[in-house]
Amino acid sequence: MLAVKLRGGRPRPLDGGFTSERESNHVGLLRLLSRIWDTITSFTRPPNAATLFRRADLFRQEGRFEEAAELVAQGLRVAPNNGVGHLLSAYLHLAFRQIGPAKSEFEAVLALDPYHPRALLGLAKIALEERDLAACRPFLDKALQYYPDFPEARALQDMVSSWTTAPAAPGQHPVYAGPPIQVEKLKPPAGGREFVLTQADGTLVFSQQGDKDAEDLAAHVTQVYRIASATLQRAGLGALRRGIIQAATETTFFRSNDRLILALSFPQDVKVGFGLLETDKLWTNSLRELGVRA
Amino acid sequence: MNAEPAAPRPASARAREFRRIVTEMLKIDRVRGGLVVAADGLVITSSLPRSIAVEPLAALTATLGRELEVGADRLKRTPFHTALFSADDGTVFLGSSPVGFVVVLGDREVNVGLVQWALRKALATLEGAWGSQSQIPATPEDI
């Protein structure tokens, strides 16, 4: 402790200002008692918002979303304008697949900090889910404008920037302009359903279903192809060639090259080997029919 | 009574389970890596080769998983359980769970059926920890 001599007396601490040893001891005792009291009451006192959010984030990182959500709600009651709290709330809504509330929470973060990169990324992801590429791109651009080393935003931007055409929006579907197709030559096998053939830009080439359903299916198939391709390339594995998606009631097989995507579904109990074989046959027929080399 | 909620332990049962799942996947021949990622892209646990950056891959796999979920919902299909996407040099496997997505990377020689079976087992374990348990084929050959 720094000290100076005053009028030849005993040294006086610069930061304490005590006039006697007894007074100094008294204050020291009070401080000690105060610390003990703080420690005791910390067990019964409600935690502050920062503590709640920190704990919520730890729970979240362990996948304990329900407990995290409780703490975030508690924290936001204490500090309703806390950006960290709203961001955590947005993440947890996403984890629970509650997209509307997640969007509102990301927007609440941006109202507090218009350049918050993680809120911008969150909204970009939601726009991507909604197939609103026009809304997605500016969020990613803005996030990367101020934080160019933001790996997640960069990965998504790299992906969407390679999409020459936006995924089909309702009522605005690109029209296939290739050679005419003889439908009877593209008959799916027994048990096969929801057969769809699209170009990589989302143009519907052929579908087994009615127009509306076919366009929705083609948009989904194209979007899965694009994201799966980006994922495989990011993992250093190359371009997408095959896919299998297994759900409770059906199994869907994908086959693709750089220009065309074929999707064909079967009932859930189909043997994978059979599905692959039949999808390959239909793929070969489709390429032949379109005059494309395999 | 203690008014403060209990702080999470460093290694909760769920966190251990996630790590165990990835570790088990890595024991399969030709599996190069694995991760568990939440639907928001948060990496819960991962083990990847050094050449692959975890955050970008997590962002893309979470986006892919969400498209499979949202697309199925739009098309009025049932939600997906597992998916795989193959390229010339390997395969990405994806499993859906309440916590998010379990992702496995295999090289071109990976035994697809074995990984799918192991992935289903892992997902059933996760579902068990969160709620109902799904049916798993007895062997990979039954898939």
Task: Characterize the structure shown.
- The complex is a heterodimer of chains A (294) and B (143).
- Chain A is α+β, with helices and mostly antiparallel strands and 294 residues long.
- Chain A folds into 3 domains: 3-42, no CATH class; 77-161, Serine Threonine Protein Phosphatase 5, Tetratricopeptide repeat; 183-290, Dynein light chain 2a, cytoplasmic (Beta-Lactamase, 2-Layer Sandwich), CATH 3.30.450.30.
- Helix content of chain A is 53%, strand content 14%.
- Chain A has 10 helices and 7 strands.
- Chain A has helices at 21-42, 49-61, 65-78, 83-95, 99-112, 117-129, 133-146, 151-161, 211-234, 272-290; strands at residues 3-5, 11-13, 193-199, 204-207, 240-247, 250-256, 260-267.
- Chain A has a 5-stranded antiparallel β-sheet with strand order 4-3-7-6-5, with helices on both faces. Chain A has a two-stranded antiparallel sheet with strand order 1-2.
- In chain A, a hairpin with a 4-residue loop joins strand 3 and strand 4 (204-207).
- In chain A, helix 3 runs antiparallel to helix 4.
- The longest helix of chain A is centred in the C-terminal third of the chain and has 24 residues, at 211-234.
- Chain A is elongated, with a radius of gyration of 31 Å.
- Residues 1-17 of chain A have low confidence and may be disordered.
- Chain B is an alpha+beta fold and 143 residues long.
- Chain B has a single domain (13-131), classed as Dynein light chain 2a, cytoplasmic (Beta-Lactamase, 2-Layer Sandwich).
- Chain B is 38% helix and 25% strand.
- The longest helix of chain B is centred in the middle third of the chain and has 21 residues, at 54-74.
- Chain B is globular, with a radius of gyration of 16 Å.
- The termini of chain B are far apart.
- In chain B, 50% of the residues are buried.
- Residues 1-10 of chain B have low confidence and may be disordered.
- The interface between A and B is large, with 70 and 61 residues.
